[in-house]
Amino acid sequence: SPKKEMMYLAPSDILGTYCRLDAQSTYDLYVHVLEPALARFEGLQWYTHELYMRFLYLLVWQKVSGITVDFSMLDKHKINLESRIQDLRKQFLEHPEVKPHVDAYAKAIVDEHLAKEPKQHKGEWPPKPPTTQFKKDGSSTAAWLSYEAKLAAGPETSQVWLNWSRKLQELQGVSLFNLNSGPQKQWLFYQAMNYPITSTTESGQPATDEVALRKFGEPGRILGDYISAEKELGFNESLRGVITPETGKYHPSFKVPGTHTGRLAGAGGFNAQNPPKSLDYLACFTVPEPYVLVTCDHASLEDYVLAELSRDASLWSFYGPNSRKGDCMYLSVGARLPVLGQKIREAGYDPENWTVESVKAAKKAASKWRQVAKKVVLSANYQAGPNKIHASLLEDGIDISLDEVQKMHRGFWELRKGVKVWQSELKRQWTDNRGWLLNGFGRPICLEPMREKDLVNAVCQSTGHDAHVLFQVLTAECLTKHKLDWYPWHMDLHDCLMFAVHKDQAETAVRLLKEIVYPRLNQMLGGEIHIKGEPNICLNWADDKDESYDWRTDERAQKFLAKKEKDCG
């Protein structure tokens, strides 16, 4: 049958007709179906014509420009990671709680193989001779010749025994416990080591994922680290597979959009949207001389959107136009919840009368309770109930009763009752429209019935991402208008933007973002709560994760730039 990818080889009378019909059907679809639908939504018209097409242009420019990969760092990362994987593997298999069980497991497999030793090697030697030795003409029969050959060769050279012997040597020469095997991990932790089953997979099997491993003491932690390292190594190897030999760069591909809210998803055999958080890995992504990176991550973007759209009193007091900079959301919420409130206040934090110093001190003194508050806030926002939050806290090693979690959960939604009111309004719109509702940009988004609980998150995430798309377009227009030497590097990383710019213009680019792009963004959005972000200058992706990093005072950066200038003459 014909292959679709070979269509371009078709004769012109066939290919030309196909292309004409394809173009006509696309035009008819737009004129008779899509354009009338667009006319119903002013926000969608503007988004599609004025914003989305410019956004696609940036993604194409970004793909053509590519992302420079430091091969020496990539090789170093791989070597270090392989060494770490071997070390973790050894730690796990030789751990005193694990070793007796994996040794017993290996012995059982070897013993099973020993029991299958060929019979002729178990004392039934020599083999029985055939009943007839000679033919009528006095020559030896074929059976007798075979018998003599076996006697001359000895028992160890029979093919059956050779195969059995090789398999025995193979079993005795390697570790028989597979650290990546679900069934073997189930046997080890649940049967051999007698850990209770507290979570299961979708098929009902006892869970052995990284979350479940946290409950298995030190062996579980070591094995979890091993699995994480293996995944990270997979990213390293995948990156190598998508680097273009001619350019030595990674030219990113995306699904646009990748989710129902409009966010991107990775494509082309590599996902740059959800990289490992390892600094050694992120340091492989860099820029060539004479460029540096300018990155800008919006502060609590989706929380700002939620506060603006829901007008919830607690969110408005924290993120609203009159709020003070320097507070901590999780301390603020935790101090107002049952169970946690007193513990956090005892650490010196007063949600109504805090100082930057008291916030910093409470983060340290009440670190555990801040983590509990963070878990409650994030989980409840995604509609998790008390039972799920309780189980998640236990997995993190925080021993707290279900009754206490239930009180905190009730207290949280009493605090955020404005969000509940807004959620009810979203549900009404979604029901009346039979499956769709408008986000903050006036753009319709659709959710199937099973996603009803995601209404709030879908509207906030889609609105936040649309705002970030606008931020990208405004940034590109501003940098180009001011004639900066720049190109898009990784412009749409969820709530973060990254672009490359000539090092002599980096400070100018930062100033333009602060003084022109952000004010223009907030003016166009028209909200009372202004979106904020703090641009950062760095040499690679890893530097962006260090809040204290300053490329102007970093000795390593200065040596790097000096060397590049010398190499480039």
Q: Could you walk me through the main structural features you see in this protein, from its secondary elements to its overall organization?
A:
The structure is a single chain. This protein has helices at residues 12-39, 42-65, 71-93, 99-114, 142-153, 159-173, 182-192, 210-213, 217-242, 279-282, 301-310, 313-319, 329-334, 340-346, 356-365, 367-381, 386-395, 402-415, 417-432, 455-481, 506-525, 555-567; strands spanning 67-69, 243-244, 249-250, 253-255, 265-267, 285-286, 291-297, 436-438, 444-446, 486-493, 496-502, 536-538. By secondary structure, the protein is α+β, with helices and mostly antiparallel strands. Strands 2-3-1-6 form a four-stranded antiparallel beta sheet. The protein is globular. The mean pLDDT is 88.
